[in-house]
Design a protein that fits this description.
about 300 residues, alpha+beta, 3 domains, 6-stranded mixed β-sheet, 3-stranded antiparallel β-sheet, 16 strands, DNA-binding, LysR_HTH_N, transcription, LysR_subst-bd
Length: about 300
């Protein structure tokens, strides 16, 4: 049966300092207490470790062997403490991140690579999914989401990163063939696509620059829970779709997609990073959270509006 490891440490200190008094003073306990602990240790082992005299202490043969093992134990404990302190100050290790599939397909992938170039000792496991996740139960360190209402646990921190905008778009070829809708009500006469998980009627909520709001219900020609499917359908000249700006910036620059009803805007989506309380956060997670917040502000201002 393993006894109190402190007794081994006390024995090591006594040998190092040469007497009970100095050993006790080094850790703030009395000479009598540390002497009694060593006597108890010898009794437990059934051997004498020290020859005691009024002038000095001397190790027995078994005491010398025992001391070498105690010295190795103290050295390993110091190494373990140093390793723990190093981890506390240097970002390293693995972090588990979950983000929407859309975000992984957009500029966030570049944010990840920029982070990895700066913090080469951090390993990232990225789970791209649109489903609701239980951050604690599933072992994620960080979640990035366009809504925060699924994370009501008081032990979680919800930090807003910015706003994501969306637009109605179509290819020039489609609009050349079928014309431009002049008002939101005209959309019901065009092929429109929708991101939805439920079959049936879809809806666009639009706000005019003068503040007037309107909801347009329509039967989508194509509905999918994958933004890329809707984007490809628009690029294939099949109709009009709503897309987050993360997905259409390059195509708009290239003239492959153009805005429809540009005087009308769609609701903005708030982007959040969610993580457990900062208390006890390992440096790798803390560094990742701070990095993405700054990186989005620096590199993604074209499509993530800062508040």
């Amino acid at each position: 049966m393993l006894w109190d490891l402190n007794d081994l440490y006390f024995f090591y200190l006594i040998v190092e300092h040469g007497n009970f008094t100095k050993a006790g003073q080094s850790i703030g306990i009395t000479k009598s207490k540390i002497s009694r602990r060593i006597s108890d240790l010898e009794e437990h082992l059934g051997v004498r470790l020290l020859h005691r005299s009024t002038r000095k202490l001397a190790l027995t043969d078994i005491g010398q062997i025992f001391y070498q093992h105690c010295k190795a134990m103290v050295s390993e404990a110091e190494n373990a403490q140093e390793a723990a302190l190093q981890v506390q100050s240097t970002p390293r290790g693995r972090i588990r991140v979950t983000c929407p599939a859309l975000f992984a397909q957009s500029s966030f992938a570049q944010t990840i690579t920029r982070f990895m170039k700066r913090f080469k000792d951090v390993h990232i496991l990225l789970n791209a999914t649109d489903r609701s996740v239980d951050l604690i139960q599933e072992g994620f360190d960080v979640a990035i989401r366009f809504q925060s209402n699924n994370f009501n646990d008081s032990s979680l921190v919800v930090r807003k990163l910015g706003l994501s905008t969306s637009s109605l778009l179509a290819s020039p070829e489609y609009l050349y063939e079928y014309g431009y809708p002049e008002s939101p009500q005209d959309l019901v006469n065009f092929n429109c696509f929708a991101k939805t998980r439920n079959e049936g009627i879809a809806q666009y909520s639009l706000t005019h620059r003068d503040g007037h709001q309107i909801n347009i219900n329509f039967q989508p020609l194509l509905e999918s829970n994958d933004w890329l499917v809707l984007k490809q359908a628009a690029l294939s000249h099949l109709g009009i779709t709503l897309l987050p700006e993360e997905l259409y910036r390059e195509e708009m620059k290239a003239g492959q997609l153009v805005p429809v009803l540009s005087e009308w805007s769609l609701p903005e989506a708030s982007l959040y990073v969610i993580y457990p309380s900062r208390r006890g956060l390992i440096p790798a997670v803390r560094a990742f959270i701070d990095f993405i917040a700054e990186d989005i502000k620096t590199h993604c201002t074209a499509h993530i509006a800062q508040e």
